[in-house]
Every structure is written in structure tokens, then in C-alpha cells.
């Protein structure tokens, strides 16, 4: 496993996660975990083989939203008890695979750099078995969180119309640009009151990025606020099964289509 180790030639090239889409935001509570699940599900429903990696270790995570009790999870991997591929469980109802996180294991942000590098290397080995790997990065703009994001082929930066969410999304974009200028960053506005409101939120963020960073991260999609999202989480059932004909479901399916059209 060659991984970001210093050599006489200088730092080794970090492993790339070529088919990974990282979901990031800075701020918590903007819907990263829910969107990661639902996007993975939407991709699986188009016949793609998809893996959801729950890196949102500290908080209410994927297994809780879906009501799963995986026998093995990332906690065991981080403790060195099992390998990453052994932590994969099949989520039959959704037709995709999951590496569950574990509440209380701390966050990716607190992982020592070499642990994270090892995890990324294992993920890079696991990734090619899938068409898509969705990485729920959890909240934060720390270097460790960005380390995984820079390896993904695309990073969806999520925001809502709240100024704190926009500020954190901006901060994440700024730091990512410094770390990897060529990073493919795209914006997702979640919890939008309407498509129009979502466009306004994007325009505000876009303007700040354009004025102060000289970049215009494209809009990947707008996902409208939908009361049935909460209902499906309460019932620990995926939205696309419980409420397939809703605005939020249509928005995620459109987001998935766009990701497939513009790899
Ligand atoms: N489009 C949406 N419409 C309605 N509620 C949403 C939507 N997206 C997320 N939520 C709600 O927001 C809450 C936080 O979502 P979560 O995915 O846990 O956020 P994060 O992972 O960013 O902390 C959840 O309770 C979820 O029900
Ligand atoms: Mg989360």
C-alpha cells in the first residue's frame, strides 16, 4: 500500500478515489447523511453498483436513519480489528452496500493522519468493485475531512439558505481550492423552500466565490424541503421507497441523473 509517505523523491502521490463522490458541508444538520443515503439509493435504482461510506462517525448516522444494525462497522476498522472490506454490509432494501460508521467513535477530523491515509488506501482498493462510492464526510472543514474530499472525483458541497451554512460552505470551498485547485467542487442547496429560493441561495454563494476566490463552483442541484423526508427517517425507511413521488425524491433523482451525465 503506497500512501502519502515521504520518499527521497518527495511526497508520494496520494491515492485517488476515482469513482467517489464526497458529500461535505462544513456545517452539520444540512442533510448530508440523508442526501448521501438517498443519492446512493437513486444511483442503485438506475442499476449501478453503489457503496455508501459513512464517515459521519460522531453523529446520528446512516444505520440509524435506515434502522440497520450492522454486525461490523468502521469502528472495528479504525480499532484495527477488521479490514475495511469486512465492514461492508449489504442493504438489501436499497440495493446498495454500506460501510456503517458508529456513533461515539469520534469524527474523521480526529483521526491521526496515518490512520486516515490507511483508510483511504483501503477505500481505494475497495472502490473499483463499485460503479459509485458515496462518502458522507460529516461536518467540519478540518484538514483530515478535506483529505478524503480531495481524493474523490467530485465533491458536493452542501448548503442551505442559512447564513451559517453558506459561510461554512464558502469556507470549505476556499480551503479545498487552496489544497487542490483543480478539485471538482459542485454546490447542492438543500432544504430549499422552492426551486427559485434554492437558486437565490446558490447565487449568493456563487457571488462570494466569484468575488473573493475567483472561482464559480457549478450548481449540482437543488433539493426542496419536504416534510416526508422527516417522516421516512422517523420510520427508518428510505424516501424513495416510502414516498417515491415527492419533490425531494424527484430532486435527488435529478441530481443523480446529472452526476451520471457529467462525470
Ligand atoms: N430535503 C429535506 N427536507 C426535509 N427535511 C430534510 C431534508 N434534508 C434533510 N432533512 C432533515 O434534516 C435533518 C438533518 O439531516 P442529516 O442528514 O442528519 O444532516 P447532516 O448529516 O448534515 O448533519 C434530518 O432530520 C432530516 O430529516
Ligand atoms: Mg450526518
Automatic annotation (TrEMBL):
Instruction: Please report the stretch or stretches of sequence annotated as the CobQ/CobB/MinD/ParA nucleotide binding domain.
Output: 21-233
Q: Name one GO biological process term.
A: negative regulation of cell division
**What Gene3D superfamilies does the entry give?**
P-loop containing nucleotide triphosphate hydrolases (3.40.50.300)
CDD domains the UniProt entry points to? FlhG-like
In Pfam terms, one family for this protein is CbiA
Judging by the UniProt lineage, the source's domain of life is Bacteria
Q: Quick check: keyword Lipid metabolism in the entry?
A: no
List UniProt keywords, sorted A-Z. ATP-binding, Nucleotide-binding
Q: Name one GO molecular function term.
A: ATP hydrolysis activity
Q: Which GO terms describe its cellular component?
A: cytoplasmic side of plasma membrane; cytosol
State the protein's name.
MinD/ParA family protein
UniProt lineage = Bacteria, Pseudomonadati, Gemmatimonadota, Gemmatimonadia, Candidatus Palauibacterales
Amino acid at each position: 500500500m503506497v500512501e502519502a509517505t515521504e520518499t527521497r523523491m518527495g511526497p508520494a502521490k496520494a491515492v485517488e478515489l476515482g469513482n467517489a463522490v464526497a458529500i461535505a458541508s462544513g456545517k452539520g444538520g444540512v442533510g448530508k447523511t440523508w442526501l448521501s443515503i438517498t443519492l446512493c439509493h437513486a444511483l442503485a435504482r438506475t442499476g449501478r453498483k453503489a457503496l455508501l461510506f459513512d464517515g459521519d462517525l460522531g453523529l446520528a448516522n446512516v444505520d440509524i436513519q435506515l434502522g440497520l444494525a450492522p454486525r461490523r462497522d468502521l469502528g472495528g476498522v479504525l480499532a484495527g480489528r477488521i479490514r475495511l472490506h469486512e465492514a461492508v454490509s449489504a442493504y438489501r432494501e436499497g440495493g446498495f452496500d454500506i460501510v456503517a460508521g458508529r456513533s461515539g467513535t469520534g469524527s474523521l477530523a480526529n483521526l491521526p493522519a496515518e490512520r486516515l491515509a490507511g483508510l483511504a488506501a483501503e477505500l481505494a482498493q475497495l472502490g473499483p468493485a463499485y460503479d459509485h462510492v458515496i462518502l458522507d464526510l460529516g461536518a467540519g472543514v478540518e484538514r483530515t475531512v478535506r483529505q478524503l474530499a480531495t481524493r474523490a472525483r467530485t465533491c458536493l458541497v452542501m448548503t442551505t439558505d442559512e447564513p451559517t451554512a453558506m459561510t461554512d460552505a464558502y469556507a470549505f470551498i476556499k480551503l479545498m481550492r487552496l489544497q487542490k485547485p483543480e478539485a471538482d467542487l459542485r454546490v447542492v442547496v438543500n432544504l430549499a423552500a422552492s426551486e427559485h429560493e434554492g437558486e437565490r441561495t446558490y447565487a449568493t454563494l456563487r457571488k462570494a466565490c466569484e468575488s473573493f476566490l475567483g472561482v464559480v463552483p457549478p450548481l449540482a442541484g437543488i433539493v426542496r424541503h419536504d416534510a416526508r423526508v422527516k417522516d421516512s427517517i422517523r420510520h427508518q425507511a428510505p424516501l424513495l421507497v416510502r414516498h417515491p413521488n415527492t419533490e425531494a425524491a424527484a430532486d435527488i433523482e435529478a441530481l443523480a441523473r446529472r452526476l451520471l451525465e457529467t462525470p
